[in-house]
Here is the input.
Amino acid sequence: MAINDSHTNGAAARSTTNSTTTTTTANSSTSSPTDFKLKAGLAQMLKGGVIMDVVNASQARIAEEAGACAVMALERVPADIRAEGGVSRMSDPAMIKEIMATVTIPVMAKARIGHFVECQILEALGVDYIDESEVLTPADMVHHVEKGPFGVPFVCGCRNLGEALRRIDEGAAMIRTKGEAGTGDVVEAVRHMRTVTSEINRAKNMSDMELRVYAKELNCSFALLKQTAELGRLPVVNFAAGGVATPADAALMMQLGCDGVFVGSGIFKSGDAVKRAKAIVQAVTHFRDAKVLAAVSEGLGEAMVGLNVGRMKEGEKMAGRGW
Amino acid sequence: MTRDIIVGVLALQGAFYEHIKLLQQAATEVALNDGQRWKFAEIRTVEELERCEALIIPGGESTTVSLVAARSNMLEPLRDFVKVRRKPTWGTCAGLILLAESANRTKKGGQDLIGGLDVKVNRNYFGRQTESFEAPLALPFLRSKVGEDGSDRFNGIFIRAPVVEKLLPVIRGEQTGEGAFDETVIAPAKAAEGEKAKKQVLRPVEVMATLPGRSRTLKEKIVALGMADEVGDIVAVKQGNVFGTSFHPELTEDARIHIWWLEQVRDTLEDQDQDR
Here is the structure.
């Protein structure tokens, strides 16, 4: 409840520290079912929408006017992180606060993989969602953040079903693909979505005995795998992310079964950000209507330059971060 | 010949699929006349809207839904649906904001409203995501008093939820009085067509649910806003055949409100059919 927030947040932060230091097994049971329903519920409200990366308040306003259903506040968009290199961290709280004060839509922010103190800080700021993101430099090469005890919900990336269910087990209330951020090349996001779908399809026809073996193979929880098999989809909302640069890319990911789309560098690294942002929003709503897609794809100016993922070295890819 | 009674769920953005699932569950409990059957559809275009007898505007981001509706040329047809022809409509959370005749704390520059309920809605009244909450609500209007869990309460899920801050006088034109306040937007006026529709829009606004005790715990906030705190926060209202809730029944598996609402839709249709 609202009135007790500062108190419970403090408790959550403490128990996170404890659980991370005293236990090695992933366990989301520290989050009550009530909390989880509220966390996953906000993601359900974002469905059919576009979440845009923004680096300052004026970009956040452009995103809001374009019809973004949320914004992701970060210091540098992935394309710049790639170009400039160095260690990439959580953004300056002052910048996040300014964005929160400027727009009325939900504000998300990124924390480094495993960096639970960055998450505690973001929670204290009152952000609406935390992205434990491979786009930033990982802070822990073994552990992810224990997300269940936090009051704020988390979104995490995945390349396959096992990775998605490990993140959900840790308490993630929303999943996204781990497409190569900052490239403008959608190929990896497509690969991840297709992999998750085909693995769910395999699981759907399995008996419990087979599911136990499959859970071992995917390195995930049997209970979550069984729930996924019964639902025929991930038990939480699943967005596309990484490499989405055009309305057609966005609609492609929707037709492949994504619930919505994150767009990072694709908007503010393109020629006409305002027009492109609006076009991608329309494309996600009318993702099956080719006439609308044709109309909104017209005259958008230059798309972001783009990097061909096929020609990148393994070490340059971000998707491999996360365990 | 079978006549389909099409109930639409606006699918521009948000949790529309969840409503359709609960409507399908509710439909088995709400009998129609011989030869009629319920049909539920996602609505993204004017053509799809034209086929509907009733509409749900789901939870989502009201800013997004409003902008996408405008760019998809849906805003005027939606106003026509709700205010001119006065067809049964229900909005949840973002949907309630859009159905309000007046709203405040919207984005900079305001946002377009559909209107239909003579109320003023305070957007994101309950704050950010970390202040989202669940609360058991008393909803005496439900026919099935007890839910599947044996409770006579309905689990209200409030996510960055709005509240009905004020019931407005029922007037024919725009709520210009509210429009005079800073940072408050109002819906444009639309004259209802036909006797039945005219009667519906002049019905009083009924408070259908409140959060008692809530206003006491939030006392500081309310004093700051200069609001009266006697009744508790208003979280559901109905004006004739237009209904709004600031919480999300679509995030539960409890179809009781959907059953009640489909019965209301059916009764409205029967009323119309008698005139034909």
User: Anything to note?
Assistant: Chain A has a mean pLDDT of 89. The first helix of chain A runs from residue 5 to 22. The two ends of chain A are 34 Å apart (CA to CA). The longest strand of chain A covers residues 107-112.
